[in-house]
Design brief:
carbohydrate metabolism, cellulase activity, two-stranded antiparallel sheet, hydrolase, Glyco_hydro_9_Asp/Glu_AS, 2 domains, 14 helices, Glycosyltransferase, about 350 residues, mainly alpha
């Protein structure tokens, strides 16, 4: 690859609260993972998380205003940086148990919009994840101070449950796939299913249920919905197609991915220019290189249809933010194949 891969930065003169607070959240979460295995490294991660979050909060602004040409229109900050500030504070509270982060979350709950747009969770919008993560404190009996986050989390879960939800943006296809208006639907499937699973485990440990007005749902119901989505992705759907490349007898063969669709260096030693891939892009032939394990955008309407065409990138493009939450789901259901079982976090 000889195309530019320019590195950009945010700083006090060019703020990026969203990317900085997201980084702080990742560092704080990492510090929890390494706490027992490598205490020194864990402390280094946490110290850096604290410093990066302080920068994100002090110098406020969306990174796409500072780096507009580099990140827009594909990865502009559409939901604002406020949710990432709460997300970072929530993970720092979990990692440190410091009162300052607890107070920050409660003080900024309304200002930073904890209950806004809670039917979405992803690379741009963290609202639903914030409410699920913080609600664990309430469910474990550790902090009634955050009761409003538990209410938000319940409301979010209710929007996802078949037979209960009446949310205009959440539907289910005839084959059972969760469908949310917008492109690359599988990102919503994996991300929302991950939260369904996480919340079901919190509820199981607390002996709780989701309150949805005049009805309610058990942790098992949430896990069954999440497992149904994973099963659909792996081939239990009307097309009998796995949406994970390389898995099963039938899977997408013409994914929207340059390295998968261009010939390898061994097959084509000569240089292929940046704009010289059109012939491969438009070819009806399957991609020569399998991107094993990649999950594509999948059906993007409520008919379970999938064209398997590179040009329809909304359906054929694989992304890290589709695969990442799916790893957690696969790990859980590998260990607990029966949704009626209760497992750990």
């Amino acid at each position: 690859m000889d195309t530019p891969r320019t590195v950009y930065k945010v700083d006090p003169s060019h703020p990026g609260s969203d990317v900085a607070a997201e980084t702080a959240a990742a560092l704080a979460a990492g510090s929890i993972v390494f706490r027992d295995a490598d205490p020194a490294y864990s402390k280094r991660l946490l110290d850096r998380a604290v410093a990066v979050f302080e920068f994100a909060d002090k110098y406020r602004g969306p990174y796409s205003s500072s780096l507009h040409a580099a990140v827009c229109p594909c990865y502009c900050d559409y939901s604002g940086y406020q949710d990432e500030l709460l997300w970072g504070a929530a993970w720092l509270h979990k990692a440190t148990r410091r009162r300052e982060y607890r107070e920050y979350i409660k003080r900024n709950e309304v200002v930073l919009g904890a209950s806004d747009a809670i039917n979405e969770f992803g690379w741009d919008n963290k609202h639903a994840g914030i409410n699920v993560l913080i609600s664990k404190e309430v469910l474990m009996g550790k902090d009634e101070y955050f009761q409003s986050f538990r209410v938000n989390a319940d409301n979010f879960m209710c929007t996802l449950l078949p037979g209960i939800s009446n949310h205009p943006q959440i539907q289910y296809s005839p084959g059972g796939l969760l469908f949310k208006v917008g492109s690359s639907n599988m990102q919503h499937v994996t991300q929302l299913s991950f939260l369904l699973l996480a919340y079901s485990n919190y509820l199981s440990h607390a002996g709780g249920r989701v309150s949805c007005g005049s009805s309610s749902a058990s942790p098992v119901q949430l896990r069954r919905v999440a497992k149904r989505q994973v099963d659909y992705i792996l081939g239990d759907n009307p097309l009998r197609m796995s949406y994970m490349v390389g898995y099963g007898a039938r899977f997408p063969r013409r994914i929207h991915h340059r390295a998968s669709s261009l010939p390898s260096v061994a097959a084509h030693p000569a240089r292929i220019g940046c704009k010289a891939g059109a012939a491969y892009y438009t070819s009806p032939a399957p991609n020569p290189n399998l991107l094993v394990g990649a999950v594509v955008g999948g059906p993007t309407d409520d008919s379970d249809a999938f064209p398997d065409a590179r040009a329809v990138f909304q359906q054929s493009e694989p992304t890290t933010y589709i695969n990442a939450p799916l790893m957690g789901l696969l790990a859980y259901f590998s260990a607990h194949p029966n949704p009626a079982e209760s497992g750990g976090d």
